[in-house]
Amino acid sequence: MPRKSKLKLPPLKLGDESLGQRLARLRKERGITQVQLAKKIGIIQSLVSAYEHDRLRLSAEMAVRFALALGVSTDQILHPKHAPPAEEVPSRRVRRRMKQIESLPPRQQAFVLSTLDVILKGALDQAARSSER
Hints:
Blueprint: E1 13-14, E2 17-18, H1 19-29, H2 34-41, H3 45-52, H4 60-70, H5 74-78, H6 92-102, H7 106-132
Antiparallel strand pairs: 1-2
């Protein structure tokens, strides 16, 4: 179990967010809960919370573990100014529905997707008309 640093250093800030805030942002962008992330890393949820609130210092090993679990490079965790923009990840709600659609037989998937295409086309057309007014 990681130990709390005995050094009396202020939290390291690179940019507008601390290392813990960056970890929390990356986790949320991927739609992962603290419990899910903890399970992927092999620690308990309260430790994830402690890292995200800068109560624990991130060791090199934990930085690698977080990076692997979040699907990012350690540079994105440690040096955000040099990191490429995060890939947009669908929300948890959208991913849940995608899984439900994928679990259907192929013919039903095709029906659901064609229905969604019609609904989306109508919504986009309506939005375009509204913005022209």
